[in-house]
Write a structure and sequence with these properties.
By secondary structure, the chain is an alpha+beta fold. The chain has helices at about 5-15, 15-30, 35-50, 60-75, 90-100, 110-130, 140-145, 165-170, 170-180, 195-205, 225-230, 265-285, 300-310, 340; strands at about 215-220, 245-255, 290, 315-325. Bound molecules: flavin mononucleotide (FMN). Flavin mononucleotide binds next to strand 3.
Length: about 350
């Protein structure tokens, strides 16, 4: 008999010994799994700390620009007494815009145009409120803006939200109905999903909130069967139905859109919010979806990144199986917890 089997049989003969053996085994496994945390730590650390002199990619410049000019946008909406704001971030914004142009990236990019638009609004605000009488910031901003093509007036910032109209358009009961109707489907017919439908859903999901509006998410829509099957083979929750979905979405969030250790969890938070919007946007267009977890070992994560040909900084948030549900598709009841287990007023 194999020594391992012999040991196992001996242990099984004594209940206490066996329980102790199992406890020790799980302890060792849990310690070994610490290496997974190190894998995540390494990627996030590598992605977030760019190095002082590194040449920034377009994606990094966009993230950095959004991060800084969002402070200006916010400042323009603050209630109460007006004060001079933006002293710390204006030099950063101007420097990023300069790097952008030097790198030859398109100045027609919505993020670039958004920054110019915010600077215009900022300059107008400082002047109107006489917040910078000594021209400390205004001079720098004005010089920069003079060299820029003004952004059209239809890009007014800030804008006034029409709350009443919003609540009229979507009642609570309609919204709840939408939530009720979304269920994870695991049976699809073979109708293909048109690219336009996916594009519309993703465009709507882009309206989701994200930390400092950095929008780290990206969706890979895979209808190619070979690639779909390969990607699904690395996921542990699609057995028995994954192959039926004609479309596989991979939602990612780029860790390089975040700048420091305190933001380490942000890709997952923004990624989750984005995905939820995406699910609803697919649902209202008649599609059925099933989220597929990305609970994988580092080896599997690396393999999927290779298949998608994306850097590891682009964290996979989850897959989504998408298709048209078969008629009479059954879904689990999936009871929800009691409200008072989920909500506590303090
Ligand atoms: C992040 C995430 C990962 C999931 N992974 C899987 C999966 O791998 N396989 C699966 O069959 N369902 C998966 N689901 C679906 C859940 O089982 C489902 O959302 C839950 O049971 C509630 O049911 P409902 O979506 O129909 O309301 C996942 C859901 C989420 C949010």
């Amino acid at each position: 008999m194999h020594p391992k089997e012999y040991l196992r049989q001996k242990l099984r003969a004594c209940d206490t010994c066996y329980a102790r053996y199992v406890a020790i085994k799980y302890r060792i496994l849990s310690l070994l799994s610490l290496r997974y945390f190190f894998y995540d730590l390494w990627i996030v650390h590598q992605s977030m700390f760019w190095g002082a002199n590194s040449h920034l990619s377009l994606s990094q410049l966009r993230a950095k620009l959004l991060f800084y000019y969002h402070k200006i946008e916010k400042g323009l909406c603050m209630p109460g007494r007006q004060r001079l704001f933006g002293i710390e971030v204006i030099p950063q914004i101007l420097q990023i815009l300069e790097s952008w142009k030097q790198s030859g990236f398109s100045t027609n990019d919505p993020v670039y145009l958004g920054a110019i638009n915010s600077l215009q609004a900022y300059a107008t605000h400082l002047q109107a409120e006489n917040l910078d009488p000594e021209n400390k910031i205004l001079s720098k901003v004005s010089i920069y803006l003079r060299a820029e093509t003004p952004v059209e007036a239809n890009a007014d910032t800030p804008i006034i939200v029409q709350r009443d109209q919003l609540t009229e358009a979507v009642s609570f009961s309609n919204l709840r109905h939408l939530y009720l109707a979304r269920r994870s489907a695991r049976n699809f017919d073979n109708r293909p999903v048109a690219n336009e439908v996916v594009a519309r859903a993703v465009e709507a999901a882009q309206l989701s909130p994200s930390a400092c509006n950095r929008q780290p998410c990206k969706v890979f829509a895979i209808s190619d069967e070979k690639l779909r099957v390969s990607l699904l083979s690395h996921q542990n929750g699609n057995a028995g139905f994954g192959h039926l979905a004609p479309l596989l979405l991979v939602v990612t969030a780029n860790a390089d859109h975040f700048f420091g250790a305190i933001e380490r969890n942000q890709p997952y938070i923004d990624g989750g919010l984005f995905t939820m919007s995406l699910l609803y946007a697919l649902q209202v267009q008649g599609l059925a979806t099933c989220c597929l977890n990305w609970c994988v070992t580092p080896k599997t994560d690396i393999a999927a990144h290779k298949l998608l040909d994306i850097p590891k900084s682009q964290k996979i948030i989850m897959y989504i199986a998408v298709g048209y549900a078969q008629k009479q598709t059954k879904v689990p009841r999936s009871h929800r917890k009691a409200l008072n287990d989920v909500l506590e007023f303090k």
